[in-house]
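Closing statement on the ketopantoate sub-project.
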Amino acid sequence: MQWHIIGAGAIGLLWASKLHKAGHHVSLILRNQEKLDQYRNNGHFSVTTNEQTEHFETAVELADNTTPIHQLLITTKSFAAVDAFNSIRHRLADDVRILLLHNGMGPQQQLVDDNPALEIWAGSTTDGAYFNAPFNLIRAGIGDTQIGRLSKQGNDQLFEEIAAVDNRLKLTTDINSVLWRKLAINCAINPLTALYNCRNGDLIKYTDRRAAMAQICKEIDNVAEASGIFLFERKLMEQAWDVAELTGNNHSSMQQDVSHSRATEIETITGFFCKIAEQVGIAVPANQLVLEAIRTINEPDDN
Ligand code: KPL
C-alpha cells in the first residue's frame, strides 16, 4: 500500500520505518527544498532501537508534487496539522484515508467537520523517539498506539491493513475518549514542566508543583464530568502522578519546545481544554493561568 507522510518529525519517521518494514511504500512530504536536499544528501534515515541501527531509504517529495494521495498520515505538530492538510488537499484521491497522529485536540475535529465526505482517523501514542542528528532517530521507549475512525464516512478496514505495522497498535471504537485521556495527562504535566523547566518526575517532588498540578487536575475532572466525558477510574491527579513518576526522567514535549524556543502545542492542549470549560460554564483558573503564562513565553520578542 502507498502511504504519504506529512510531518517528518520523530513520530513521522518512526511510522515511516514501521510502514516500510511491514512492506508498505512510503513517501515523506518534506517542508521545503532545503529539507529535501538535506535528505537526499543523507540518502536515508535511520532508527536506533536498543543500540541497533537500521537504515531506511524512502521516497521524498514536496507538497506541490502531483501524484495522488490514497493514504495520508499527518504527524506534524498539532498546530501545523490543518495547514499541512491544506497544502496537499488538491492531491487527495477520491478513496483517500487520512490518519492524524499528534498531541492535543482540535485539528482532528476541525478536519472532520470541514470535510464530511472524507474518511478521517485519529490516533494517540505513547511511543517515544527523538533525533540525535537530522534524520537519525533514537527510539526512547516502545509504547502503545490506539487509532480509531473519527468520521462517519468509511469503515474499519484501514486498521486491518496496518495492524501488522506494530504489534502494540490497537483499534478503538471510541477514539474521542482516548484523545481526551491523553489531553488530560498532557494538560496536567506539559505546561507545568515547561514553566518550572523541569523533568516530568520533578513535578511530584515539590509541594508547590504538586499543588499546582492537583488544582489543574481537579478542574479537568470537573469539566469532564460536566461534559459527560469519562476519563479514568480514579482521579486525574492519581493517574497523572503515575505518568509523571513512570516518565520521571523525561522532558515533556512542551518543556523541550520552550527550552529550544520553539512554538508549543499549548493551544491544542490547555487552550482546547479551556474552550470546552467555557462552553460548559466552568471556571478553570489554574489552567487559564498556565495557558496565559505559556502564551507569553511563545510570543515573539518585539524588542
Ligand atoms: O506525552 C507527553 C509529552 O511529553 O507530550 C507526556 C505524557 C507528558 C510524557 O512526557
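Residues 103, 185-186, 189-190, 200, 243, 247, 250, 252-253 surround ketopantoate (CB under 6 Å). With this model delivered, the sub-project is considered complete and its resources will be redirected to Aim 3.
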